[in-house]
Every structure is written in C-alpha cells, then in structure tokens.
UniProtKB/TrEMBL annotation:
Gene3D superfamilies the record matches: Nucleotidyltransferases domain 2
UniProt keyword terms in alphabetical order: Transferase
InterPro entries in the cross-refs: HepT
Stated name of the protein: Putative nucleotidyltransferase substrate binding protein
Entry annotated with the keyword Transferase: yes
Organism whose genome encodes this protein: Clostridium chauvoei JF4335
Length: 145
C-alpha cells in the first residue's frame, strides 16, 4: 500500500510543481506586459530627442556630401539650400518641397520649446524625411560614386 501512496504523493508533487511553474510563468508574463504598457515618459522623451539629434547630424552630413560631389564637378555650393536645389536640378532629389521641409525642420529644432512641436518633427523625420534621404543616398551610390 505504501508504494501506491508514494506514487500518489509523487504525482501530487509533480502536479504541484508543474502548476507552480505555470503560475510563475504567467506572473512573469503579466509583469512584463504591465511594464511594457507603462513605458516611462522620460525614456520616450530621451528617445525622441535622440532621434532629433541624430537627424540634425544626418541632415548636415547629407548636404555636405552633396557639396563635395558638386565641388568635384566644378560647382562651389556651400549651403544646404543651394545643394538641395542643385541636387533637384540633377535629378538626385525628386521632391523639392520635402527637402525644403527637411531643411526647415533641421533649422527649427534649436528653437522649439513646445513638446507638441518636438513630437511633430520626430514624426515627420520618421515618416517622411527618412525615405527622402534614403532615396537620395541610393541615387548617389548608384549614379555618382
């Protein structure tokens, strides 16, 4: 009889351990879910500011690359707007309005004090400007280098 009771106890312990592990997994999942939904506002602000800062650098490097390309062609263009106009004339840039907005956004980032404006610029960077810059870089890579 004790063999049956031992197996019964072992079965109960095994079921208990399994249930305990499942409950702990469920608890961990719930904690991760709650933490994911409570994204820290500071983290979001740092992320946004980081995107804007990297964008400022990217825009600066982009127009300076264009300036060097045009200089190799004998054109001395030393301003972002001038470089974008020339790139448009040469077909490297498709939509001059987008590139004017890229430059305006870059110039305005140092003078924005409203969180809503920061968010709008971040969204424009991610949803509009990155595609335009990527398109330009592909054209430069295939046509100019």
């Amino acid at each position: 009889m004790s063999g049956i009771l031992d197996k019964y106890d072992e079965s109960i312990n095994s079921t208990y351990n399994y249930t305990y592990r499942m409950l702990m997994n469920l608890k961990n999942i719930k904690e991760k879910y709650i933490n994911l939904n409570k994204v820290d506002e500071i983290t979001l602000e740092v992320y946004r500011d980081s995107i804007i800062k990297k964008y400022e650098t990217l825009e600066e490097l982009t127009w300076k690359l264009l300036s060097k390309i045009f200089k190799a062609d004998g054109l001395d263009i030393n301003s972002p707007r001038g470089c974008y106009k020339q790139a448009f004339k040469e077909g490297l840039i498709e939509d001059m309005i987008v590139w004017n907005n890229i430059l305006l956004a870059r110039n305005s980032t140092a003078h924005i004090y409203d969180e809503t404006d920061y968010e709008a610029i971040k969204n424009d960077i991610l949803n509009k400007y990155m595609d335009a810059i990527e398109s330009l870089l592909k054209k430069i890579s295939t046509e100019r280098l």
